[in-house]
Amino acid sequence: MTTAVETDLLTVSDLTVDFAGVPAVRGVDLRLRRGETLGIVGESGSGKSVTSLAILGLLPGTAAVSGSVKLDGRELVGLPNKELSAIRGRKVAMVFQDPLSAFTPVYRIGDQIVEALRIHQDLDRAAARKRAAELLDLVGIPSPDRALDSFPHEFSGGMRQRAMIAMAIANDPDILLADEPTTALDVTIQAQVLDVLRTAQRETGAALVLVSHDLGVIAGMADRVAVMYAGRVVETAGVDELFARPQHPYTLGLIGAVPRLDTSGGPLVPIPGGPPSLAALPPGCPFAARCPLAEDRCRTVEPELLGRPDADGHLAACVRSAELAERAPAPSEVYPVPEVAPAVADTAVREDREPVLRVSGLTKTFPVLKGSVFKRKVGEVYAVDGVELDIRRGETLGLVGESGSGKSTTLFELLHLAKPEAGRIELLGQDTAQLDRASAHRLRSDIQIVFQDPMASLDPRMPISDIIAEPLLAQGAARELIARRVPELLRQVGLEPAHASRYPHQFSGGQRQRISIARALAVSPQLLVLDEPVSALDVSVQAGVLNLLQQLKAELGLAYLFVSHDLSVIRHLSDRVSVMYLGRTVEAGAVDAVFEQPRHPYTRALLSAVPLPDPAAERNRTRILLAGDPPSPTERRTGCPFRARCPVYAALPATRHARCETETPVLTEAAPGQDHTAACHYPEA
Fold first, then answer.
1. How remote is the C-alpha of 204 from its chain's centroid?
2. Higher pLDDT residue, 265 or 593?
3. What span, in angstroms and rounded, lies between the C-alpha atoms of 56 and 78?
C-alpha cells in the first residue's frame, strides 16, 4: 500500500507567520497530491493569501516564518533565496489576483513570458518567443503572434489574467498557486479563466491550490477544501463531503450566507459579529464569540483539528463536530434567521403601483479626441445606446451586464437630473428634461446612491454623525431635526447611536456600508441606487447587508435600482431584472421569468457562468462560454451588436445570418401582456 508521504507532492506542517509579533498564520497543516486541486476559503484576514505566499517564500523580510513546507520531500522554509528562485516558476508557479500590478507595465507581454522561459530553460530568443506564442494560443488569446508585442494595459482584465496563467505554466510546474484569480472579473470572463485553469492543469498535470472567497468557484473546481479562520485551518474534507455535511459551525455559516442562483427571496443566514483581532486572541476557540453552539469549554482551550476514524480525512477543529456530523443541520437550524416583512412589491399588483422611474431610449456618447495641443474629434464612444428601465414603488430592479456594458454611465445620467442627450428620463412623473435648477434640487432628495467602496465614499476626516447629516444640511434641514434624525438612522441600519462620534476607519467594511446606507436614507428618498454595494464585502458580511436592504425596503416602501455583476445577489434581492450589453437593454422582465426561461443568448451565457455552491449540481451544469471580450463601444454596428459572440448566430445556417447582420433587434414580449421582453431575432433557438 502506498503511504500518504509517498503520494503527497506538497506537505505543509505547523506553518506559522508573524508580522512584528502579530500572528497571521498559526500552525497550518496542508497536503497536496499530484494533479489534485485544493481549495482554500475563509473571510478576509483568515490567512489564506499569507499561507500561499509563504509556500513560495514571497513574504516581505518583516515576516517571521517557521514550521515546514516540503516540496517532493525538499524543505523550502529557510532555503536561500537563490535556491528558491530556481524553484519559483519551474516547480511552483503563482497566478496573482491582480495581473495588471503583477506584470511589469513597461515591458511587452511577450518579453515577460520569454524571460520566464529562458530563466529556467536553455532556449534561444526565437525558440522562446515561438513557445510564448503557443502558450498564449493555449490559453485562448486571439492572434497570439501579435499579442506578444502588446503591453499589459492594452489587454482587457480577462486577457491579462490568461496571459498570467500562460506565464505561470510556461515551465510545466508541478504546482500552480492561484490567489483569487477571478475576483475582479465579470462572470463570463471568470468562466473563461476557470476553463483556462482547467486546461492548463490538464496540459501540465500540475496540482492546483486555489484561494477564493467564492464558494461556488470552489465547489466547481476543488477536489478537497480547507476552511481557514483566524490564521488556522478549522475544517478540511473532500469537496462533496464538506458541502454536504460541514462539521464546523463556521463552515456551516459560510454556506448559509451565500445567495444562490437556483433559489430566490427570503433572508440569508448571516454569521454575527466579525473575525477577532489576531493581535489579541481570546483564550479558547477563536470562533466562540460568533458561534451559536459555543459552550463554556469552547472558551478555555482551543480545539485541535481532529476527525473520526470513519471520516475519510474529514477533520474539524470543533468540540461539537461529531454532533454536527450526525445531525447534518441546515444553516438556518443553527444560526438565527432574521424575520423580514413582505415588501410592497410582494403584496400589490404591479400595474396598481405608482411609477418611480421610467427610462426610454436613453443615449449617451463621449467624443474621442486626438492631439496634444489642438485636439480634434476623431470618433465617438457609444457608452449608452438605447436603455429601457421601469421601476415601480416598492420594487427592486436589478441591472446586470459585463464591464463596459454602460451600467455606470446609465446611473450617472439618472443622477444628473438633466436633459439626456437622447431619450427620456421620468423620475416620480417628472421629465428631467423640463426641470429647472430649483426643481432639480428639490427632486434630488428623492433619489440617492450607495457606492461600491464605502471607505472611498466616506470622508475620513469627518465623524459619521457629520457624514450622515450632510444630505440633510444640503436640503436646508433644521439643526434640531438633524440632531433627532442621526440617532434614528444609525439604529435603523443596525448601528449604535453612541458611536456617532467615531470616524470611518474605526468601523469594519460592513459597518461602513451601513453608514453609507444611513446617509442615503437621511433625506427620505423614494429611489435608492445601489452600485455594487456588497461586491467588496466578505460573504458573511454581505448576507447581513442584503438582509438589511430587504428589511428597509419592506419598512419604508423604497424602490431600488440595484447594479451588480453577481447574478446570485440579483436573483436573491430583485423583483425584476434588466440585462445590458454594449449600452443597450437586451432582456428585461420579472426575475423568475428571466432567470428560469432566458430568451436572449447573452442572458443564457451569463446565467450558465454563475457558479453554484453545490459540487454535484455544479459539475452537471452546461456552460456557455462566450468567445473573447465585448467589442469596442467606439463603433456603432449594424444589426445585432452581440452576433460576433453569439452561439445562436454561429449555429444558424448562413441563409439566416442576414437578418442578424442588417436588422437591429428590438425588445419584444415573449407573449402578449407578459412582463418579459428580449431583443433577439431568434429567442427560441
1. 28
2. 593
3. 11
The pLDDT tens digits for 660-683 are 999 999 999 988 878 899 999 999
The DSSP letter of residue 306 is B
Determine the Cα angle at 312 with ends 306 and 315, to 5°: 25
What count of other Cβ atoms lies within 10 Å of the Cβ of residue 487? Answer: 16
Same domain membership, residue 309 and residue 405:
no
| Span 650-662, average pLDDT | 92
| Shared-domain flag, residues 235 and 282 | yes
98 burial level (CB within 10 Å; 0-12, 13-18, 19+): middle
Answer yes or no: are the C-beta atoms of 112 and 103 closer than 8 Å.
yes
Clarify whether residues 325 and 413 are in a common domain: no
Total domains in the chain come to 2
Residues in the chain: 685
Domain end (from 312, 337, 362): 337
Give the torsion through C-alpha atoms of 97, 100, 102, 104, to 10 deg. Answer: 180
Does the pTM surpass 0.85? The reply is yes
Q: Is 149 exposed, middle or buried (0-12, 13-18, 19+ CB in 10 A)?
A: exposed
Question: If you search the block for the grid coordinates 430566490, which residue do you land on?
Answer: 264
Q: Which helix (H) or strand (E) holds 399?
A: strand 396-400
Determine the distance from the C-alpha atom of residue 356 to the mean position of all C-alpha atoms in its chain, rounded to a whole number.
Answer: 29
**Are residues 38 and 209 in contact, defined by beta-carbon separation less than 8 angstroms?**
yes
Write out the residue range of the structural domain in which residue 663 sits: 344-446+525-678
One domain for residues 234 and 314: yes
615: cell is 459540487
| Chain mean pLDDT for the chain | 90
Partners of 581 in the β-ladder: 584
Is the model's pLDDT at 310 over the cut of 80? no
673 occurs within a structural domain: yes
Which amino acid is it at 494?
A: G
Given the DSSP bridges, would you call strands 37-41 and 315-316 parallel, antiparallel or unpaired? unpaired
Cell numbers linked to 333: 437550524
Q: Are 539 and 614 members of one domain? A: yes
Q: Which of 476, 501, 473 is nearest to 487 (CA)?
A: 501
Assign residue 5 the CATH number of its domain.
Answer: 3.40.50.300
Residue 346 predicted with pLDDT over 80: no
Q: Residue 123: its pLDDT value, please?
A: 93
- CB-CB contact of 260 with 568 (8 Å): yes
Round to whole Å and give the CA distance between 193 and 185. 9
For residue 88, give the amino acid letter: R
Query: Does residue 492 lie in a domain region?
Result: no
pLDDT in tens, 580-638: 999 999 999 999 999 999 999 999 999 999 999 999 888 888 888 887 777 888 888 88
Task: Give Cβ neighbours of residue 580 (< 8 Å, ≥ 6 apart).
Answer: 387, 399, 400, 401, 405, 406, 407, 410, 586
Give the strand pairing for 207-211 and 175-179: parallel
Distance, in Å, from the CA atom of 531 to the CA atom of 562, rounded to the nearest integer, reads: 6
